Sequence to fold (369 residues):
Amino acid sequence: MTSKIQPERLEQAAAWRARLAESSETHAGEFSSWLAQDPRNREAWRCVQAPWDVIGQHATAPGVIRLRRASLVHAHNAMRGNFMWPRRFRRPAMLAAAAACVLAAGAFLFWRQSRPEVFRTGFGERRVVTLSDGSQLTLDSRSEVTVRYTANARALTLIRGQARFDVAHEIARPFSVTADGHKVIATGTAFDVDLLGPKLLVTLLKGHVVVLPQSAPTVPWVPDAPRDGPGSATLAGARSRALSSDGDAMDRIYLDPGEQLVMTPSAVPKISKVDIERVTAWERGEIVFDNQRLASVVRRLNRYGPRHIVIGDDRAGSLRISGVFHEGDVDGFVSTIAAYLPIQAHERPDGKVVLTYRPGPAGAPTSGS
Fold:
């Protein structure tokens, strides 16, 4: 359609775009007359205006503001003295105005495609997002994920919090989630990634995944990839060696359904079998703990509400607890552990609840240490 429009009319339409952007009220009557002169004028206007409308839909984005400002400056300069110039110079000026409009639209479209989508949740909020390929992203409270899809890859990053990823099968376009310096790759599976303080937890719910260093190339998951041994109860049974694109050796950690990988800066990665119902309890608004340190439990509970709990001393943080709690129920949690553990709680003026160790009578045993 565009190729059939006369270049002169496109130039005129681009010139009108620049003039109207500068002062629509001043030129409104004259512009309406130009549109009414010929249906081909209206067609040329639609061609020039369409990309500008796309930019207008995102007018408040900083990148778009810069693009529009630059485009209008160029177009204004090109048109400023256009009608005072000899006729032979008018065509280049109009072409410059048209080029400015097209450049702005093209730059915006490139900017829009290159920037990732961002999905986040606040305190006590959960969110389910269906992505363009049919994959589903479920975010826990206070979580943030960025999504960048290209023709060859589906690249996501967990910035903070916890999320479940249900991946649509597409082997030619690998699906990767980067978190805390590591990358989880899958093509059709479901897994949970959790950033809990210094810990990174990756739990495979179904299918297969491989965990690589963040710097490793993202390649499609191959179901029959070689493994060092059956099962993954220990790291030795789940790790194999591969070569990166530059020839350096790197670790690949494979998981089977029901396995959880725990990585911390100060310890060797650990893989163990877990209860998937417990791991995914957050999707039902519950948190399940099984003989976990109180410090770790509190860190997770603080994700769900603005009223935080503070561990007052190391001895209190090292106590262990099991149980099922509702997200955000700070009072219920505090009263429960105070009844079953040697813990005392007091509320500070800022609303935070401080837990400290409560010594028992001399000679009396204490629980949970």
The first helix runs from residue 7 to 22. Residues 2-114 form one domain. The two ends are 77 Å apart (CA to CA). The mean pLDDT is 78.
